[in-house]
Amino acid sequence: MRKGIHILIEAYAALSSPPPLTLIGRAYGNIEDGTSYESYIKKLIQKYNLENKVTIIPGVPHEELKKYLQMSAVAFFPSLWENFPYSCLEAMASGLTVVTSDTGGYPDMVNNNECGLLVKANSHASLYQAMKYLLEKPQLVRELGLNARRRVQTLFDSSKVCELMEKIYEN
Fold first, then answer.
1. Do 67 and 90 contact (CB within 8 A), yes or no?
2. Phi, psi of 90 (to 5 degrees)
3. How far is 97 from 147, CA to CA, in rounded Å?
4. How far apart are CA 101 and CA 75, in angstroms?
5. According to the model, what pLDDT value does residue 161 have?
6. The pLDDT value given to residue 70
7. Which of 22, 118, 139, 163 could form a disulfide with 102 if both were Cys (CB 3.0 to 4.6 A apart)?
């Protein structure tokens, strides 16, 4: 639930003509009434008649993930809270525009309107506005994706991160 997929579905359902949406990952845990989060998400998809628009892939081997990233233009990370998720960096490194919540490590990864969009955490209205904005500006999606890739190469390349960590340990 902390990944905010329910928020993503609510925002997506509000779009007048949404493009296909693929959800990759396993749902786990329960909501407050004891219903499994997976069931809850499937019920939301049914509630909004999105069965023909939303594909759920419970998980893919890491080596297959590249294929899905290459087929995408935007990756959504509407987490309620988060640390510093590599999945976002992987999407950015693949040249995708990312739309993330403004929580945890996301603001350190994503410069708003430069390499992606930051939206208010736990707000399907904020996420909806970002989706609508990007659908209206396909050229911006390409620009933000290119900027995202450059940002990862510049700031988050593993050799640079290891070098910084080494300096921290030396100090």
1. no
2. -65, -40
3. 8
4. 12
5. 79
6. 93
7. 118
Element at 57 (helix H, strand E): strand 54-57
Q: For residue 98, list its beta bridge partners.
A: 75, 116
Cα separation of 94 and 70, whole Å? 7
CA distance 133 to 117: 10
pLDDT at site 59: 85
Could you report the per-residue pLDDT of 67-120, keeping only the tens digit for each? 999 999 999 999 999 999 999 999 999 999 999 999 999 999 999 999 999 999
Q: What is the pTM of this model?
A: 0.92
User: What span, in angstroms and rounded, lies between the C-alpha atoms of 129 and 168?
Assistant: 40
* Count of helices and strands (H, E) across the chain: 8, 5
**pLDDT at residue 38 is higher than 90:** yes
Paired sense of beta strands 74-77 and 97-101, if any: parallel
